[in-house]
Amino acid sequence: MHSPSLSRIAFASFIGTAIEFYDFYIYAMAAALVIGQVFFPASDPSVQSLNALLTFGLAFIARPVGALLFGHFGDRIGRKATLAASLLVMGTSTFLIGLLPGYATWGIWAPICLCLLRFGQGIGLGGEWAGAALLATEYAPPGKRGWYGMFPQLGPSIGFLLATLTFLGLNVGLSEHQFEQWGWRVPFIISAALVMVGLYVRFKLAETPVFAQAQSTQRLHRWPLKTLVFKHGRAIVLGALAMAVCYHLFYTATVFCLSYGTQTLHIARPVFLALLCIAVIGMAIATPFAAGWSDRLGRRPVLMCGQLLAIVLGFTLTPMLGSGDWLWILLFLFAALFLMGVTFAPMGAFLPEQFPVAVRYSGAGLSYQLGGILGASFAPAIAQSLVQLGGLPWVGGYMSLMAVISLLAVWQMPGNAHSL
Predict the structure, then answer these.
(1) Measured between alpha carbons, how far is residue 23 from residues 105, 123, 321, 374, 388 in Å?
(2) According to a count of CB atoms within 10 Å of the terminal CB, is the N or C end of the chain lower?
């Protein structure tokens, strides 16, 4: 079973998510650092930051739309072509953001076009994860689905690390003026080359045997969404709630903390980006361990353990982040991203297991992307508002609350409702 074809499938599921999440994360970092100044009229810096974080959240609204659109075709015509199309949509939107003139040149049309392209990013990413997870898990040997489902889950951590290193290099090598004028655009423009690599790998894929069998026996639905909503609505809702905390952990640590650390604590951008580069190693370490444990112990125990620890972590946000001490901040970021890996890795197998093959692309993708809306879409903007209302303790309480919601959802979900 450990044939070269399985290795290629694992690599293809990993490289696609790595590239797409690189595209997504470079926008997250640009939103925290420079988008407000470039695309919105001069005003109070906190207002510009809030506007930038709202455009960041816009893509999460688009992601369920992408999940439904690409999920329909993924469940109708197959995983391979659908995955290639999602990558192309994402890559084109990212490249065009890098070329988009700012408010000083285009006026009000600059933020309008930015929002449209950000929506396009969300559409593309909305079709990515489910297809990559299905490629890995529908090929996986029995008893190894958690392990193979890990490969698309590794993509986000590698994509984030690549994005962070890119921004770190630009901040070190360029002056503040150069970075704000043109430097921040470089990661968006070079993403086009990465997308070409991803498309080449995707076009080399074969269709999964599970889907090919369902297609040959005509066990597919003409309108998968109709069947999904009427027969599997509860699984969608619980899956979305289960996903919420891992999204929340990640984007609180990488977007809110980056914005708060650089603008409120006045930590230099290169320093905070370096802290994130180190902290994301926690996610990369946790991902394979959590995936392996989920095969041995079950998905639910691993997920619930991570969610319980995330509840506790929320209470440490104020003393650790608020201290302004680099070491305490690094420990908090590392812990948050480590727990994100623990609560994220088993999802590569856990969510697909909640749906039958004929609606699996749509169901797993929709649950995953709705979880993004609940846990991350406007989480940095909400956290920014909570700081202004009640300070950092409110942000920590917000994190603990999201962990409680996800814990209760996983408690209500079956361990393996549908065989892959």
Answers:
(1) 24, 13, 27, 21, 30
(2) N
